[in-house]
Amino acid sequence: MYTKKFEHLMQMLQVSRQSGLLIVESAEPGESGWQGRIRLVDGNATACQIYQQSSEQVILSGNDAIRWLIAQTKLNWNLREETQSPSILSLPPPSQQRSTTRPGRGDTGPQRPTHPEPMVPSSWIPRRTKKGTMISVQSLGSFELLQVFTLVNERNTLEGIARLLRKPPQDTFQKLNMLREAGLIE
User: Fold this and answer.
1) Cα(first)–Cα(last) distance of the chain, in Å?
2) Residue 7 or residue 30, greater confidence
């Protein structure tokens, strides 16, 4: 399948809670020297690596790979169901992939860990929803949620909010996800 924006693709896969191995390549003719692999568990990226296709060598991994993919445009992608229990921390190189393309939606894959650590989309710029603009900040409950919610202003990225709070991006991402699930941000 084709997409112009990697971020939109990841948002769609997260909302639909897809699991499997996401394969991403350039859709530009003559520019297929790399391949991105992202392991998804219930819509969350648990591992990401960019491989050089000719040597199957890892070029980038982790959040650096996610940032690089976000900068790319015109991408082809497919989501593959993994036939064996996935390792959260590593991805198989292309020559060792044993998977099948998943034709439809829904999760019919093997058993997966219940709470994997998602990759942090550091360039995400959260925005308050209409509900979020009308809520009383005292109703948020915790001081940590209040701090994160206060910094959601359509300019601060996830990485920027984490830096301002002097917290790990993963912690900030979890708080932002709580706010998103409550319908206060998008």
Assistant:
1) 25
2) 7
| 91 CB neighbour count, 10 Å cutoff | 22
C-alpha pair distances (Å), 73 with each of 7, 77, 107: 10, 12, 28
d(CA 20, CA 121): 18
- Residue 121: how many CB atoms within 10 A of its CB? 23
Question: Mean pLDDT in the chain?
Answer: 76
The residue ranges of every structural domain in the chain are 2-101, 130-181
Give the up-direction half-sphere exposure of residue 168: CA atoms within 13 A in the CB hemisphere: 6
CA separation for the pair 77, 28 (Å, rounded): 13
**Tell me, what's the pLDDT at 78?**
92
Determine the Cα–Cα distance for residues 139 and 70; give it in Å rounded to an integer: 35
Distance between CA atoms of residues 57 and 14, nearest Å: 28
Structure tokens at 184: 């206060």
Rounded to whole angstroms, how far apart are CA atoms 184 and 182?
A: 6
